[in-house]
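pasting for ref
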Amino acid sequence: MKKTSLEQLHREHQPDAIEKRLNADNNPQTISDAVLGAIDGCITTFAVVCGAFGAGFSASVALILGFANLLADGFSMAVSNYEASKAQLELREQARRMEEEHIDRVPDGEQEEIRQLFQMKGFSGEILEAIVTTISQDRQLWVETMLVEEHGLQKAEITPWRSAGVTFATFLLAGSIPLLPFFVGGLTMRWQFIFSTALAGAVFFAIGTLKSLVFAKPILRAGLGTLLTGGAAAAIAYLTGYLLQQSFGVF
């Protein structure tokens, strides 16, 4: 992780720079949606490929099952992410309405909650009372403080449709890569599987690498970690297909 220079840190912590940063609009972050979609998409289709190869199915069967799972699971994951994001927004809005009602009906009790919350942070005496007075004079600040401090609901810019769209797009993009070798004619199923494995491994490692660049983590460790996760899922699928074929002779 590259450290920021002391000179740069001083510039970033000048009063005007701080004010500009704090007042800037918070754009919705979709990196987690992209990583989730890409990893799950690649695992989903490559697991189908491994299961089909382990069971001795033909390349056409692996391709059909792979794309069927790619589209169905991608849609399912996008819908699930949409509903989860929407539920998070609805939970915060419900808590907001409840706090506004409590402020209207029992303002003294809500002030006491503010008092005790900041008392637990180490404030006391006149400073504590000044904090309570300042917060309770601004209704919006009062509500937001209760949402964060009492309910643990941080303010976040969430767009359910954006999250769902990013998840679906990255799921399809990463998930289609392990299927590409099965479009190449003239290759045996074995070689198609080998090339698919190489592509899937490259995708897993690339996702881990990109994740490391975003979150300033060691590149090799992040890449290998994601690769091992995908590899473990693929191994389970292969063994399942192989054992079922050996046990029941499924073709």
